[in-house]
Design goal:
It is a single chain. The protein is about 30% helix and about 30% strand. It has about 425 residues and is an alpha+beta fold. The protein has three domains: about 1-75, no CATH class; about 75-295, Phosphatase 2c, domain 1, CATH 3.60.40; about 300-420, 2-Layer Sandwich (Heat Shock Protein 90). Helix 1 (about 5-15) packs across helix 2 (about 15-25), helix 7 crosses helix 8 and helix 11 (about 325-350) packs antiparallel against helix 13 (about 390-395).
Length: about 425
Amino acid sequence: MLRLSQSELAKEVGCSQGTISQVEAGKVTPSEAMGSRILKVLREDEPVAVRVSNVPIHRAVEFQFRMPKQERSSDHPGSLPFTTSIWQQPRLTGDFVHMYHPSKDSLILVAGDVVGRGRAVMPLTQFTIGWLTGFLQSQIDTPRLEDIVGALSKMAVRAGFELGVFILILVRSPSDRGVVSYEAASFGFPPPLLLLDPPLRTSESSQLQEPIPLTDKQIHVTRYSKLEGPWRLVIASDGLLARFGYGDEAEGKKRLYEWQSSSRRDIDPSSVLRYPQTRYQRADDELFVRMMWNYWNIKTVSPTTDTDSIRQFCDKVIDEASRFVQFDAVLGFGRAVLEAINNVRRHAYLGKPGDIMLRFRKESEYLRIEVEDNGRGGITKSMMDKHESGFAIIRQYTTRWDIRDNSTGGSIISMVLSITPEGVE
């Protein structure tokens, strides 16, 4: 296929020639320039020499952007209930995250690191993203983990550059909407943290014994046939781990785990990761991705003054909880929830109107309720330990509970109650 001029490409894509110039110069990424449009790669078997910001790149790739009409109807936005945060410095980098939905109930995530520095590797990064888009869209069914790893490693060898990746395949259970199957592999990229609750703990990957062709790096694989909430996946590049650990990646991973297990685990990542948060200067590209499973059976957002909506939520929860827990325990659990709501009214909003978010979920061994506000926050451990406080009531009627900061500066009170093993007749 012959190379299109900038004006020809701009006309075909439907954007300005200036946009194409910015992309080819590495000033913006294709996804930033074209929004959700699909990236197509031309001549993927013949990377060509280009220059980006006057830095010669020995092997790169031509690319174009297209959104053919016949592909619009096949685009799956996905229905998986995730809350995802992505933080990246610098903006133009060899690190990338690519997400693809084979169906509305499945997700393939690839986080990668093209070896090199800054803008100099941007063409190779875009080549990899474009290749991934084409490869995944060409699959009739969701590809196997081993197939993606093998195809990616083969592509990198053929194109002549070094690539480290983490690959994740999630598929939601058709029978239990709060459960997903989880398959993940990483090579040449730090294995992420998979944090589960209860209790918060890290699930370290194990080395895959069977060899995968054309990949000589150590491969780590994690598989769960049933993974239910709450869980969070924390992905961090080696550059971020090195800075976070003052030059020691292992120490950086430890500090990352401590942060994502603390009461500040839900706050905006930029408030922790921005410069000069640590003394160790950035020496490489940095990428942070946090994906949290956010499925709930019953949820509502109501003003604190809307007692009818709050009562309706509590009635639904009592009806559902009574199927799994003795009624006396349900009533006690309900009292703990009401105390948490009153705490929001009194302390978070100081008696003034404000929104309250109420969520309920059944898990395999627990019932879980979260009460969230956008109030003033700042609840201390000494306040929680007072015997005469409302938190004493919460402690009395729950199996376990904790409180953490949310992204707006408010608080989230999480309460769980153990399910009766044999259920309630």
